[in-house]
Write a structure and sequence with these properties.
Strand content: under 5%
Radius of gyration: 28 Å
Strand order of the largest sheet: 1-2
Number of strands: 6
Number of helices: 16
């Protein structure tokens, strides 16, 4: 290994190449995504070293210039991370040493790759979580629009995949919109747990003799707070990442069932919806086919994320306190999970506005049996005990009942068929938008 490619921890004894390949794995590829955040964290750490008396003002100025140049090179795609680099931290320190001299050898004072990677990772995760929230807001608003346009678009409601009672496309959309508005609460809670600074914890036991301004550095990086007791930093590895993936799983669970519905409703036997051509694919042998592959993958994404969450739940279990190399694997899992979630939601946001509801087909599918419960309830209003009315309605199966054009004449409570409650959802969305706007102002 050339001298300029020696690892940061090199102390004269070189390891075998295969050891480097095994311990680094694909970590360097994920670190390429973290590099801009790592540079920003290094700038803030440098500020802290000035306050602690480790760096002089002139040294820090040279570091700022070099690190800003490095950010531009990264943005231009001119900086890469190789396996022999191990990680983004090595790339930063080498560049800073080459461009700013001795300050590059000082910059790692008071920190470890442990708190360095966690700072970058948490900055990445909070930004990705904010982007996910924005996508979920867009999808929820699209569903609210569908709910408003199809308040009276009648369709069968199902239990056990059998005809149950009347529903509407508007109520279908509003139900999913309400779930997603709640899923955003879960995303925001995950964001709150992630947005805490680990810097100053070093390898998990603090830094002797140097009074690092941890709170000030955290504020520079827009963290809400610090993890005060430094041992908590390593103990939280896997747990914080799992909170983010759990929030993604909640969103994906909602999208899983929404996608399953649309795949089913687009089947020839149903024909309730027509999917946009640009989000369907063809068969290599059957000329007539348009397949809902995109929605099927939206549906399947949930299972990938559950597997990632399970990994994060089990990997740290039974590890003694402190850092272990096992924990390196949590980074790839959580970064992959948020990336997959973003892809799933980007696709869903594109599909939903192009879904068209086939109102004639939906109404034709509504047999009189859907009105059996309405028949029973009408008798109840005439003084017949419900169980007697139930038996009468069961025998008739709603025969003679006619589906009204406006279900709100039968259903009198908001949130029932024909009365999809949209405004409360939009009010929640406005609160989420306000939060997101405030977060974007800090990024």
């Amino acid at each position: 290994m050339p001298s300029e490619k020696k690892p940061l921890w090199f102390k004269g004894q070189q390891v075998e190449d295969w050891v480097t390949r095994f311990t680094v794995g694909d970590d360097y590829l994920w670190d390429a995504m973290l590099l801009p955040y790592d540079i920003r964290a290094t700038l803030a750490h440098g500020h802290g070293l000035v306050r602690a008396g480790i760096l002089g003002g002139g040294e820090f100025d040279r570091a700022v210039t070099a690190l800003k140049d490095l950010l531009e090179l990264v943005a231009a795609g001119e900086i890469t991370i190789e396996p022999e680099d191990e990680d983004s931290h090595t790339v930063i320190e080498r560049y800073l040493t080459a461009e700013a001299g001795v300050v590059g050898k000082k910059i790692h004072t008071g920190r470890s790759r442990n708190d360095q990677v966690l700072a970058a990772l948490r900055m990445f995760l909070r930004e990705q979580t904010e982007t996910i929230v924005g996508l979920v807001i867009d999808i929820t608003e699209s569903l609210c629009k569908t709910a408003a346009e199809h308040q009276d678009t009648v369709m069968p409601g199902y239990t056990h995949m059998q005809h149950a009672m009347p529903s509407t496309a508007g109520l279908w959309a509003a139900g999913y919109a309400e779930l997603l508005a709640g899923d955003i609460d879960t995303l925001r809670e995950a964001h709150r747990h992630v947005n805490v600074s680990p810097l100053g914890s070093a390898a998990g036991y603090g830094v002797p003799f140097v009074e690092l301004p941890r709170a000030e550095v955290a504020e520079l990086l827009h963290f809400d707070r610090i993890q005060t007791n430094v041992t908590a930093v390593q103990l939280s590895r896997g747990k914080m990442e799992m909170q983010v993936v759990h929030a993604c799983v909640q969103v994906a669970a909602t999208m899983n069932r929404l996608a399953a519905d649309l795949v089913l409703y687009s089947a020839t036997e149903f024909g309730f919806v027509t999917l946009p051509d640009k989000f369907t694919t063809g068969s290599s042998i059957m000329p007539h086919k348009r397949n809902p592959d995109v929605l099927e993958l939206v549906r399947a994404t949930y299972h990938r994320l559950v597997a990632d969450m399970h990994f994060l739940a089990t990997l740290p279990a039974n590890l003694p306190s402190g850092y272990h190399r096992d924990l390196q694997l949590t980074k790839e899992v959580v970064m992959r999970a948020v990336t997959v979630t973003l892809e799933q939601l980007t696709v869903a946001r594109g599909v939903l506005p192009g879904v068209s509801w086939n109102e004639d087909r939906m109404r034709a599918a509504c047999g009189s049996e859907l009105l059996a419960t309405a028949h029973a309830m009408r008798q109840v209003l005439d003084g017949v005990p419900f169980r007697e009315a139930y038996r009468v309605a069961a025998e008739s199966r709603g025969a003679g009942e006619v589906m009204p054009d406006d279900l709100s004449t039968q259903y009198l409570v908001d949130g029932f068929p024909g009365r999809a409650a949209i405004e409360p959802i939009r009010e929640r969305l406005e609160q989420h938008r306000s939060w997101l706007s405030s977060r974007m102002g800090e990024s």
